[in-house]
Structure formats: structure tokens, C-alpha cells
Amino acid sequence: MTKAGFIALIGEPNAGKSTLLNQMVGAKVSIVTHKVQTTRTRIRGVAIEGDAQIVFVDTPGLFKPRRRLDRAMVAAAWGGAADADVIVLLIEAHRGMTEGVERILAELGDIAEGRTVALAINKIDRVKAKELLSLSQKMNDAFTFEQTFMISAERGYGVNDLRGWLGDKLPEGPWLYPEDQIADLPMRMIAAEMTREKLTLRLHQELPYQLTVETENWEERKDGSARIEQVIYVTRDGHKGIVLGNKGETIKAISKAAREELETFMGRRVHLFCQVKVREKWLDEAERYTEMGLDFKDGNA
User: Fold this and answer.
1) Does the predicted model carry a pTM greater than 0.90?
2) CA–CA separation, 202 vs 3, rounded Å?
3) Domains and CATH numbers, the chain
């Protein structure tokens, strides 16, 4: 009998959820950068473990929201947890039980009722074994986790053990996706996320949160390649100049990096064209939220 179900990865921003998802799936399906709050929507990655099909839901980081976009992201994260068969709380070993983790634990009680909840302590290579055991005890005193895992999502340590355990916990039933499918996201959105990742890596601290990327047009060509047109929305003229760079050098470098990653991911040639548009109020436009896979109404105060 086959098994299938949803696993929600929750935690603070930058805890390593996207890195863990990519390790579990064996391919890059979620945006990974050194900056926090890069995942904006619920991204599903699909992995096979024996007779089980595990659908991982990488949620936005849980943090104290300030803006409409923040509130919509946090609502998406808790929504992902509420819909899951199993919840995995990911925390950083070197940061321990932060105020943010305590807030998550306080809210987790209601969401987790009737669900299996596991703890994954990530980035274990940054602390000593004695500190890990102390942190594990402290976390399990604060919440009843069914199992605790010590992992390094970046290095892959402990990931197979976690995936095997999760596969055993899923309910019996038919697989939800074709065997060769690794992500439940339209390619248009995956392409936009890849470009947004390159922007986030290239630009300075604040600007990435003031921009979004949308795939405006996708054309399948006779030679097997794809022509993709994207729009990068920013909120100010000054931001447009930063994205373009001197003589267009920045946007050229970003487009090249995104195109190369898309070609690797898709296994064929890609012609990527990016343009930058100023849209001052995009953070308050329902259409932009729909493109990101978020619910505009969830952003209401």
C-alpha cells in the first residue's frame, strides 16, 4: 500500500527551511539566499521515500509582521501548517530558543492538535554536542514533540533519517503527483522565483523586499527552446536605477544568472528577457499577491 501526505516546514526566517526542502527533493525548487524572508509563498516540493510520496511545504518564515505583505506571508505559513499531516519545526542550533521560537511554540498548540509534530535542530555543526542536548531538552520541555532530529540541511547530515521517519508517518493512500514531478508550482512562478533569487543575492539589504518578479509571457518555440519575458516591479525610480546598474550591467548579470539556472533546471535552451518597471503601490495591489500565491485579504491588519 502506498502512502502520501503533506509535511509543513515551519520556523523563523533564515532557519534553513528552503535549504532543507531542496535537500529532501534533491533539486532546487525553493529560493535560497543569505537574506531573511526570501520565501514568500507556500512552495511544494515532492520527494519519494520507499512507497511514500512526501509533499513538503516550504512556508514563509514566521516573524512579527509589520506590513501587508508580511501579514500575508505569515498567514500563508500558518495556513500551510494547518493543512499538513505532519509539522516539522526547524530551529537554528546556534541561536537556540529565541523569542521568535517561543512565539511560534505558543501558537503551535492550537494548530498542532491531532497532528504529528517533530523538531529539527539545524546547523548543528555550529555548536558543541553538550549545547545541542541542552537545547533539545529545553525545547521538549516547552512542547511535546514526537521526535527530535539533529541535522545540517546545508551539508545533508541527518536529512535521510528525517525523510525516512516522515515517510513512515504519512497516511496510506494513492500518490498525489506523477512519480517524476518534483514541484507543485507553475513553471512561470518557478522562473520568476529564480530571477528574484538572483536579484536578492546581487542587491543590497533593503531593496529585495521592495521588489517582485512576474513572468509576463512564456512562448514555446519550434526549436524546443522557451522565450520568457519577465517584469521586475520596484516601488521607486531610484530602485529602478539600482536594478539596471551602470549601463545596464546589473540587470544583464542577473538575467544571465537566472537564464543559466533555468536552462539547467529545464534541461533546454531559454531566452530570458527582463524589464524593470516602477509601480509605487504594488505592495497594496491584490493582483501582485495573486501572482505570488498569497491571499491579499490575509494582509489586512
Assistant:
1) no
2) 41
3) 3-169 (3.40.50.300), 187-299 (3.30.300.20)
